[in-house]
Amino acid sequence: MHYQNSLLELIGNTPLVRLKRVAAGLPATVLAKVEYLNPGGSVKDRIAVRMVEAAEADGRLRPGGTIIEPTSGNTGVGLAIVAQEKGYRCLFTCPDKVAADKIRVLRAYGATVVICPATVPVDDPRSYRSVAARLERETQGAVLLDQYSHPENPRSHYLGTGPELWRQTDGRITHFVAGIGTGGTISGAGAYLKKVSHGRVRIIGADPEGSIYSDPEGPVRPYLLEGVGQPQLPRSYDPTVPDEIIRVSDHEAITMTRRLAREEALLTGGSCGMAAVAALRVAERLTPDDLVVVLLPDSGRGYLAKIFDDQWVARLGLFDDPADTGPRLRELLPLSVERPRAIVLQPEVSLLRAATLLDHYPGGTHIVVTAGAPPLRLAEVVGLVAAHTLRDALTDPRRSAIDPISSVATVRPHVGAGQSASAAACHLDAHDAAVVIERGFVCGVVTGDELDDLTRADTARTSRETALETT
């Protein structure tokens, strides 16, 4: 008989699979290292074992203790599997942008999960990393492993992932591509490959737009992808390892993630799509003698209600649903990401100043309140303020004309620029307006009355066309 005594014995030695359809026509061979075939469904299983064993070895983690970790889900699953094997409790903090499916997976393994706001700075006491540190102080027998600074994070890839890649490719690998999150994978595996190849292997990182890795001097902005990018450089990342870092948009990454499932039968997470986009860009400029390996870190099981849900991606302007046959909002309204169809104001602008600006904006019905600047991400929008709400506030004796506009802003629904008026109207519920999104960016505001008018016009057009066809 052949069997394992524990799931932990199955971690690592994940296979390489050639990307055939999405890489068709490219000169270089592109192989994917499928890390979701680890028992916990991601590359993070590798670091989970080594971090726990290190905490045991130095006496910080004792029998019956509690493992605490800030995680976007995958590291938590790996730690939960290790904890179940060794008899520890798990307490995880997750940013609120993490897919609900991933939170359910963590809880299914018996972990306690605390949800924290994703858009606050790292040092804010409400951030998921700050909350994890506080919980360690408050919980007896608890250990915060902290993948962002733990030396076993990159070491696990130097000792495991890197040697596997070299062995599996018989030393023929010329380019290694990986997304950068904590930085452990690219730092550890990349350092090994550079050493064993005497510098011949090129190491390329993939990074979401808005992250610091690909633009250290630029502003940190929110993005839709989970588990990749950072607002600041973690200690687990070695910036001397990557030879190049490629920036990838949410739209490119999510589109490629869906293609991997439908064209390669690889059901992966959004960071895998991001890495694949970067790998294909690299392969475009190479030769048939080159071999590109891209690491796909996790499974798509935690993204079924997001990336693989047609409505979710359509409402973010990332996908035009072919079943939605009416004229799309971008064809009917003057929408623009660079100059959104709305007044955009900072949260601290006074009510009086906002009213003055609104009076000088022809046809202005709503103000978008945000601390950001175009191109705006949806997560940067504090809320909308309708013209009538602003007027009411200025006549309210309980308010002052110098109160900030943010004090009367409310969250509204969002719809995609690629949706029809009738499809968009379904998301308004009782709200009077919605933010319109194109490829993840704010491009305007549409009111319920406008959607009603556009829907009636489309219905009338369809009726005329039907009548003509029957005559």
TrEMBL record:
Q: Which CDD domains match?
A: CBS_like
Q: Which GO terms describe its biological process?
A: cysteine biosynthetic process from serine
Q: Does the keyword Glycosyltransferase apply?
A: no
Q: Which PROSITE patterns match?
A: CYS_SYNTHASE (PS00901)
Entries under Pfam families matching the protein: PALP
What GO MF annotations does this protein's record show? transferase activity, transferring alkyl or aryl (other than methyl) groups
Q: Which cofactors does this protein require?
A: pyridoxal 5'-phosphate
Question: Which Gene3D superfamilies does this one have?
Answer: 3.40.50.1100
The Tryptophan synthase beta chain-like PALP domain, residue ranges: 9-298
Protein's name in the database: Cystathionine beta-synthase
Keywords for the protein's UniProt record, in alphabetical order: Pyridoxal phosphate
